[in-house]
Write a sequence for this structure.
């Protein structure tokens, strides 16, 4: 740091200098800068509250500089979703045929943990669910690899598709329920779900009262519910693979 920077500057002058330094020159911003800044801002205010004027202020540019590349908020969110999906796809482990059960379970758990750990990713890919053709193509390639591995493991193409689809729906449903619960709790009413707002009467619902008192949840998306559902999907797939291994019975020879 040189001598000039160490000199005391009046507060008003400091503010003016900071604003001048933060303000970018016209034409000095590009789409990558805007998308990166949008992710930074979304971490602070959320996807729902992200706006072009707020983003312009965050980046230190006029809002027209953003509209030059992204005509509306949906266009910007589509670009953010493209980037998020590519990063997510590369971070998700592959499903391997030789140990399909372990790798599919690991695939599901990693997918769930990734979304639960990144609300912005969840809002963009799962809740918003508006993928550009390019982003959708990236997702299709990853699903094709996983289903191909399940076919190699012994499932029919139809059963492999249904197994992966069931796993994917189970993961996404679990994550979205958890995310919506968080949003509801953060709202003005502060209500999460049925497990947060009521207790079961032992006289009218003795089974529900007894089980929920042990820590089970009826509608909340917790680890216990997730693992139970995942195990059911894996067990069904294992049963189908075993069935496919059994040799087909030969039809009895016709009598002449």
């Amino acid at each position: 740091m040189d001598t000039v920077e160490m000199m005391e500057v009046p507060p008003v002058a400091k503010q003016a200098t900071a604003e001048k330094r933060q303000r970018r020159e016209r034409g000095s911003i590009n789409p990558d800068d805007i998308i990166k800044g949008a992710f930074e801002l979304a971490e602070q205010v959320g996807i729902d509250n992200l706006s072009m004027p707020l983003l312009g202020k965050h980046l230190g540019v006029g809002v027209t500089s953003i509209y030059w590349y992204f005509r509306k908020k949906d266009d910007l969110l589509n670009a953010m979703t493209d980037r998020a999906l590519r990063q997510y796809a590369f971070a998700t482990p592959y499903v391997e045929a030789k140990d399909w059960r372990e790798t599919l379970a690991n695939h599901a758990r990693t997918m769930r943990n990734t979304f639960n750990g990144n609300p912005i990713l969840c809002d963009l890919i799962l809740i918003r669910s508006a993928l550009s053709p390019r982003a959708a193509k990236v997702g299709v390639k990853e699903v094709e690899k996983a289903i191909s591995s399940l076919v190699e493991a012994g499932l029919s193409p139809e059963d492999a598709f249904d197994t992966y689809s069931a796993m994917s729906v189970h993961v996404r449903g679990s994550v979205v329920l958890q995310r919506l619960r968080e949003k509801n709790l953060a709202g003005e009413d502060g209500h999460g779900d049925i497990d947060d707002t009521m207790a079961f009467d032992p006289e009218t619902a003795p089974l529900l009262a007894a089980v929920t008192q042990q820590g089970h949840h009826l509608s909340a998306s917790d680890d216990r519910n997730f693992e139970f559902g995942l195990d059911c999907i894996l067990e069904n797939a294992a049963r189908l693979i075993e069935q496919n291994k059994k040799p087909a019975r030969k039809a009895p020879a016709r009598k002449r």
